[in-house]
Amino acid sequence: MLQINMYKEIYTSEQIILGAVKDVKDDDWFYKLEGMGESFDWIFGHYAAVEDWFLHHLNSEPYELPPEWQKTYWPDPSGNDLTPENAVGRTGVIAGFQETRQRLYSALKTDIFHLNRCVKPGFFPPLVKTRGDAWLFIAAHAYWHVGQLNSLRATLGYPYEGGKGIHH
Q1: pLDDT tens digit string along 55-98?
Q2: Which of 35, 77, 110, 115 could be cross-linked to 132 through a Cys-Cys bond (beta carbons 3.0 to 4.6 Å apart)?
Q3: What is the DSSP string of the chain?
Q4: Range 2-155 classified under CATH 3.40.50.300
Q5: Under 8 Å CB-to-CB from 140, ≥6 apart: which residues?
Q6: pTM (2 d.p.)
Q7: Are 33 and 72 in contact (CB under 8 A)?
């Protein structure tokens, strides 16, 4: 049952995340939240980089995204200088996000009987002890940044989206 709930959380968050940018103009893609540094570009790149990192450490898979994704999109964005000239850009980060999400779905399917197994110590937050905990952590991570997407939307004058039209 836990696996089904995690799949629904990950799937639903993907729909909310993609829905939050469907009407965003390209001119607004790199706008940063004042004092924070998050832009639509950084958030999508961060999702992909963190989920690539997650799969690497959970399953000992090689990273699939180029190394510059970890360097650019993993750390706190407050000091970043992401611009259209030095970032992956809208099409690239959305594609990276969607590809990494597909890898998450595949990995979760194979974990159905392994959720109570321990994870390697030292990579995940201290409260993450089992593979099931790790899946809950990555599912929750998506929602932490949905608030930033909605803050960007509000700051730029876009209507609130929330999860309108999402059925799971």
Answers
A1: 999 998 899 999 988 888 887 766 677 788 888 899 999 999 99
A2: 115
A3: -HHHHHHHHHHHHHHHHHHTTTT--GGGTT---TTT---HHHHHHHHHHHHHHHHHHHH-PPP-S-HHHHHHHSS-GGG----TTTS--HHHHHHHHHHHHHHHHHHHHHTTTTTTSBPPTTSS-TT--BHHHHHHHHHHHHHHHHHHHHHHHHHTTPPP-TTTT---
A4: no
A5: 9
A6: 0.90
A7: no
